[in-house]
Amino acid sequence: MARLRSASPPAAASRAAHVPSRWGRLAVPAAGLVLAAGVPGAALAQDDAPGAAPAAVPAASPALPSTDTLQAALLTATDLGQTFSTSTDDTATDGPTTYGGCKALQPLLNGASGTDQTEQGTELQVGDNGPFLTEGLLAETPAKLTADYARDSAALKICKTLSITSDDTTLDFTLSPITFTPGPSAAVRLDGTVNGVQTNGYLAVGNLGDVEVQYFYLQVGSGSSQLASSFFTKAVTKAQSTLASPAAGSTGPSPSANPGSASGGVGALPRYVR
Fold first, then answer.
1. Burial 126-154, CB ≥16 within 10 A → b, else e
2. Cβ atoms within 10 A of the Cβ of 108, count?
3. Which pTM does this prediction carry?
């Protein structure tokens, strides 16, 4: 997306939209889950003793959706209509983006790398002035995702402020709860100004069992939640339908990958918020 420049409210908003996938997207992101534990040496020595019972074999962890499957489950410009297109801006030359305000949101915004998860993200926008939409899908084992979703949704409920700083420009937002469907989901509305121009955003997460939907929508000069809510519904229902398809492939955990989006947590709101 466009670089954040203090002299241009739309450009500033566009850079802020690189918040979500651990996002990556948001940038998107959670700590990796250890799927197999080593057997202590002492236990091995005991098992070698005559008559010892065979060592228990850890249950196999469920396979995670492949990165290809997650990619197919993401929204596309065609899904959104209007004049949306996939963001093609090179973020390699952008300065670092930092987040302030409520610390409870940091895991969602900044993410954490891990090999025991899969994730994909995308960034869509209308021209240079937005709106901007970032979506990330993070797959983890159900137990791990349940814990991470509980953490992320709780943060969205208690946090009241968020600041996004890039290229020496800071966007300050006040957060207020809002309901997005379908559930289970949690969402907040972000309200602020850039050089006196109204800037409005929405940050949300949805729980699909072994996949967390991480969603960020940003618009300049409007305060309506209609499109943001509608597109979140599209994101969740498309992900549910795609991931439930018999043709949806799955593989074991693989390194995170986000072709077509900036790398990082809802951080490089989304990595999914980069």
1. beebbbbbbbbbbbbbeebbeebbeebbe
2. 38
3. 0.72
